[in-house]
Amino acid sequence: MDIGTVVGLVLAVAAVLTGIILGGGSLASLFDITSVLVVIVGTIGAVIISFPLAAVTGVHKVVKKALFGTPQDAKQIVTDMVRYAEVARREGILSLENLVPEMNDDFIIRGIKMAVDGTDPELIRTVMDTELEALMERHTRGKAILDAMGKYAPAFGMIGTLMGLIFMLQNMDDPSAIGPGMAVALITTLYGALIANCVALPLADKLSAKDAEEVLIKTIIVAGVMSIQSGDNPRVVESKLLTFLPPSERTEFEAEKEAA
Q1: What is the pLDDT of residue 148?
Q2: How many Å apart are CA 208 and CA 190, to the nearest integer?
Q3: Where are the domains of the chain?
Q4: Cβ proximity of 241 and 224 under 8 Å
Q5: pLDDT per residue over 12-33, tens digit each?
Q6: pTM score, two decimals?
Q7: What are phi and psi of 19, to 5 degrees?
Q8: Are the C-beta atoms of 73 and 245 separated by less than 8 Å?
Q9: What is the pLDDT of residue 60?
Q10: Is the four-CA dihedral 208, 212, 215, 217 of positive or negative sign?
Q11: Cβ of 25: how many Cβ atoms within 10 Å?
Q12: pLDDT tens-digit series, residues 111-164
């Protein structure tokens, strides 16, 4: 589970609830079923219009990935690829087939198997790059859906507010109803702002960050597989892969290597 995402959501909700309590309000006064229907159902409808239905119904997978996805350690990937290079150099590339059961990344397994089978290097790179591009496309589509929710929710909040104001102005005969009517009219704007800024947009940004992390990991794997397939010295493989890491992580890698 991504603790940062969960903690952030909890803090955002807690900030709103604390504001309600300190402001002397109550949760019951902020609940209005009509406003819920206008904002939530309206937003869902707009998103369905904007994207293919299959993509919208699968958005929960995107949210799950943002909330519970555990990022891989780039330094560990480099360590693993260097170890595979050492085995291939010492025992031959065919010996890597014996290590497949202990590999826990399907992307690495596919690359190593193609290398072991003697697949043409250009074909290996093409297959792995195509899979990487497909991954990026799925993440981009998921982020676009969340961004759309963040865009449409405030808009439907404003639509609900305008509807409430119209209904209120049609009943000006009762001055005592103006205050409560205005409060209900503004609730929809609140709902739209909360959905956009506490849920949809933060999750979209988190997904974008996770996409960058995963693309980096898979780029390292592609470079590692290609280097192993070409028979590079393990030190050369390590040097190539470390170029993908920021200086701070390279230092940590070297320190962990010396400690081991």
Answers
A1: 95
A2: 26
A3: 33-73+125-259
A4: yes
A5: 888 888 887 787 777 777 788 8
A6: 0.81
A7: -65, -40
A8: no
A9: 81
A10: negative
A11: 12
A12: 999 999 989 999 999 999 999 999 888 888 889 999 999 999 999 999 988 888
The beta-carbon contacts of 47-56 under 8 Å, at least 24 apart in sequence, are: 47/145, 47/148, 47/149, 47/152, 50/148, 51/141, 51/144, 51/145, 51/148, 55/141, 55/142, 55/145, 56/145
Q: Specify whether the CB–CB gap between 198 and 9 falls below 8 A.
A: yes
In this structure, is the dihedral angle defined by the CA atoms of residues 223, 225, 227 and 230, taken in order, positive or negative? negative
Q: How big is the chain by its Cα radius of gyration, in Å? A: 26
Closest CA to 127 of 106, 111, 108, 105: 111
What pLDDT, in 10s, does the model give residues 162-221? 888 887 777 777 776 676 677 777 888 989 999 999 889 998 998 888 888 889 999 999
Q: What is the DSSP letter of 6?
A: H
Residue 112 and residue 213: Cα distance in Å, rounded? 21
Contact (CB, 8 A) for 246 and 141: no
